[in-house]
Write a structure and sequence with these properties.
mainly alpha, two-stranded antiparallel sheet, two-stranded parallel sheet, 21 helices
Length: 423
C-alpha cells in the first residue's frame, strides 16, 4: 500500500480537487446532510495526517452507499422576542406620566391641543400604541381618568363623530383620509393575528363531525407522507397541525374528544410511540455512520463521548444522552467502551449479551418501511411492533439474514425488548 503525506503548500489545492470530485460523484446519490458533514470533517484532517489512498476512498464509499434519508422531527427551538425599551415599574400608575405620553403621541402627528385629549382605543390600535392603551385601562378607562380632571377630554370612540368634532385629525394624518372606520384595517387579508378575522377557506357551519375529523386527519397524513416520507398511520401533534395552518383540524380534534381519544378511535399510532422509535433509528444510523468514518466500520467499540464533542457530533451526543447514556447503550448494543474515556467501561454490573449494531439498523429500517406501506385506520395493534419471522423470511436474502441473526441473539422477544418494539 502506497502512503503519502500531504505537503503544506499543495494542501488547499488537493482539498479543492477532492471536493470537486466528491461533488461530481455525489450528484448521482441522494442528498444526505450527514454525508456533507462527514466529508467536511475528513477534509479538515488532511493537513495534519498521513493518509493512504484506501483511507480516503473507504469513508466515501461507506457514506455514499447509503440511500436512506431519516428525518427526525425535532421540536423547534423557542425563539425569544427581542428586548424592548419598557418603561420602569410603576411608571404608568402616575397620571402625570400618562398626560406627558398622550401629548407626545399627538405631537408626533403634528397635533396640539390646549387640553389632554385621550385617544380612542381604535386609534391606539391603529398606531400600535398598546402601551398607552394598557395604561389607560389600568387607570380605569378614559371616562374614569377624565372624571374630576378638567384638563382631560375624551375623544369620541366612533370615528365619524371624532372627525366631525376634531376635523384636524384628517389634515394631520393623510393615511386616515378615506377611512370610514379605523377597525377596517384588521379586516385585510394579510392580517392573521386578529381572532375575529375569518379565513375565506373556513368550513361552513355544521361541517365538523367525527366523520369529517377522521377524513381531514387522514388526508393530512397522506399529504405529509408524500412530502416528508413519514408514515400516514402516525398521529401528528396538535402543535404541528397549527404550525402547518390546520388550526381548524386542531380545534376539531380537541372538540371531539382530544388527542388521545381521536388517536385511539382513528386507529393511529400516538406521537409518544413513534417519536421514540424515530429518534432511536436516527441515533443508530448516525452512530453507524460515525463508526464507518472514524472506526473503519468496526461496530464493537462504543465511541468516546469526548471524541464526539470534539469532532462536532453534537446531535449524536445529545441522542446518546437522551436514550440512556453511553453505559446503557453500550450494554444494549453489545459494544465495549473505550477505557480512556471518562468513566469508561461497562461498570453497571449487568449484561445483555451479544448483539449487532448493523442488525439493529437494518431491522428498524425494515419496520419503518413496513409502516410506510400501511394506511389508517389500524384495526388492531396500534403500536410499532416486532415483525414476525414469516414476514422477515419473505424478504429474500436480507430477511433470511435478519432472521438468523435474531435467532442467534436470543430470539424475537429478546431483540424486541432491546429495541423497544412491541411483541
Amino acid at each position: 500500500m502506497s502512503c503519502f503525506r500531504l505537503a503544506p503548500q499543495p494542501t488547499s489545492l488537493l482539498n479543492h480537487v477532492l471536493f470537486l470530485l466528491f461533488l461530481v460523484v455525489f450528484r448521482t446519490e441522494s442528498f444526505l446532510a450527514t454525508k456533507i458533514i462527514g466529508f467536511s470533517r475528513l477534509f479538515a484532517t488532511f493537513e495534519h495526517a498521513s493518509l493512504s489512498a484506501d483511507d480516503i476512498v473507504a469513508p466515501f464509499a461507506a457514506l455514499t452507499a447509503r440511500n436512506l434519508t431519516i428525518r427526525l422531527h425535532h421540536k423547534p427551538q423557542q425563539q425569544r422576542r427581542p428586548h424592548t425599551n419598557r418603561k420602569p415599574r410603576g411608571y404608568w400608575s402616575n397620571v402625570s406620566n400618562l398626560e406627558h405620553e398622550v401629548k407626545e403621541f399627538w405631537m408626533e402627528r403634528n397635533l396640539t391641543f390646549n387640553f389632554v385629549l385621550l385617544p380612542s382605543e381604535s386609534i391606539l390600535y391603529f398606531y400600535n400604541r398598546h402601551d398607552l392603551r394598557g395604561a389607560i385601562a389600568s387607570l380605569g378607562g378614559r371616562e374614569a381618568i377624565a372624571s374630576g380632571r378638567p384638563k382631560f377630554r375624551v375623544l369620541p370612540g366612533r370615528w365619524a363623530d371624532a372627525v366631525e368634532q376634531y376635523p384636524q385629525l384628517l389634515s394631520s394624518a393623510p393615511e386616515l383620509m378615506n377611512r370610514q372606520t379605523l377597525w377596517d384595517v384588521y379586516k385585510q387579508p394579510d392580517d392573521t393575528k386578529r381572532r375575529w378575522e375569518h379565513s375565506c377557506a373556513r368550513k361552513e357551519k355544521g361541517y365538523w363531525n367525527i366523520t369529517t375529523v377522521y377524513k381531514e386527519l387522514y388526508n393530512y397524513t397522506y399529504e405529509y407522507r408524500q412530502q416528508e416520507d413519514r408514515p400516514c398511520i402516525w398521529m401528528p401533534r396538535l402543535s404541528e397541525l397549527a404550525a402547518h395552518g390546520r388550526s381548524d383540524l386542531k380545534q376539531a380534534i380537541q372538540r371531539f374528544g382530544g388527542y388521545d381519544s381521536i388517536c385511539r378511535r382513528a386507529g393511529m399510532i400516538s406521537y409518544t410511540e413513534w417519536a421514540y422509535f424515530e429518534g432511536q433509528l436516527c441515533l443508530l444510523v448516525e452512530l453507524k455512520g460515525y463508526l464507518d468514518v472514524y472506526h473503519d466500520g468496526c461496530y464493537k467499540n462504543f465511541p468516546c463521548v469526548s471524541d464526539l464533542e470534539r469532532r462536532g457530533y453534537k446531535r449524536l451526543h445529545s441522542l446518546i444522552q437522551y436514550y440512556g447514556g453511553r453505559n446503557f447503550l453500550s450494554l444494549k448494543l453489545g459494544m465495549v467502551q473505550n477505557t480512556q474515556d471518562h468513566g469508561g467501561g461497562n461498570d453497571m454490573g449487568v449484561s445483555f449479551g451479544a448483539f449487532d449494531l448493523e442488525l439493529a439498523v437494518k431491522l428498524l429500517e425494515f419496520v419503518r418501511s413496513d409502516q410506510l406501506r400501511k394506511s389508517p385506520p389500524l384495526k388492531q395493534y396500534r403500536v410499532i411492533a416486532m415483525p414476525s419471522s414469516d414476514k422477515l423470511r419473505d424478504r429474500a436474502e436480507r430477511g433470511h439474514w435478519m432472521h438468523a441473526k435474531i435467532c442467534e441473539y436470543g430470539g424475537y422477544e429478546n431483540v424486541a425488548r432491546r429495541l423497544g418494539l412491541a411483541i
